[in-house]
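Provenance and format

Records in this collection were gathered into a single text stream. Each protein contributes a sequence line and a token line. The two records reproduced below are adjacent in the stream.
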Amino acid sequence: MTQTAKEIKKKLSVENPSLLQSLRVNKYDRAFQIWKRELLSIELFTEKVFIQKLNYVHENPVRAGLSFYPEDYKNSSAKFFAGGEDVFNMLTHYTGR
């Protein structure tokens, strides 16, 4: 749980326990759901869409000014797709090569 969520939970336990109880969930990893969970999932129904999304993810550190090239960003799989360097020891090429 994030620090902000912990503070909200603490404040609600004192000031509005009924609201806190309404946020109770039966999940293996938490007792309360403070934030609305919305996964941003996109179906990768064609290779073209997959490549578009992969390029978007690889370009994020560049757009954020964290690296000059996608493959320069430490936690990027771009190194693998650019030259085959698998720093994570688990990647495979999306075309099966």
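Adjacent record:
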Amino acid sequence: MPFAPSIAILSLVQASLIALPSGTMPAVASRLASRWWALVLPGSILGVIAGIAIDPGLADALTYLALVAVPLLAALALSTAVRGARPVFAGVTVPLFVIACGPLGSLAAQAAALALSGLACVALGSLLASIVSARWLKLAIYAMAIVDTCFVAADLLQNPNDVLNAAAPAAGLPQLQFAQFGSAVIGFGDLFIAAVLGALLVNSRPKQLRAAGIAALLALAFDLLFLFVAELPATVPVALALAVLELGERRTAADTAGARSATSPLRDPSSRAAPARDPRGAAA
């Protein structure tokens, strides 16, 4: 498949992950609540890139970790984390994994692997949102996009990404440490940040859908830059979608406050209240 439709599909899948989380996660997760978990977002880029730069063998470990963890997390998402989840749906991961093990480079295998990775990110994003406050999670989304942009601008991401993407498990098993469709590739972290934003907005379905639509439009527009460059930080459209949403909410709140102020009754400064009668003022 040509690059243009391939990257467009990946961008739309990324944006769709914002609309998937339902917010239902095991209660045990709340016991781990701490703002420090927000560092997982920017740290996932820093840790992987720095780790592979120091020891390229880390890429092989990550591909096997993804091979085991992604299907399990996808099953968790289908049973608890996505909208309409049911425990019985967890079994869908089995045929998805079998299809993902199909011929290398086939669209069916790539689509199945992409579905598994996306669902796994929904589970991870929902877990993270259940133990980190919204304020810190928003800051973490912005921080991840900034770190990603800095690495791409400094050309520090290409080589570690190539090493990670080249790592493959034995016996033709699928590479689940990144997502590929057609001739385009997107990082696992790019899907993860979208799922985190969706989990952050889980209490408002309209906000989720609005954010997903904004992210889709921004991502497709962002993809046009591939006409000039070979690599882009795909976390940026998601962070921008959050920024647009927050700016819109602040403007709405300001307009509402202004409307209330304009319609509130004002006291006429020329009016005078009748003096209070002194109970002792009776005639002697």
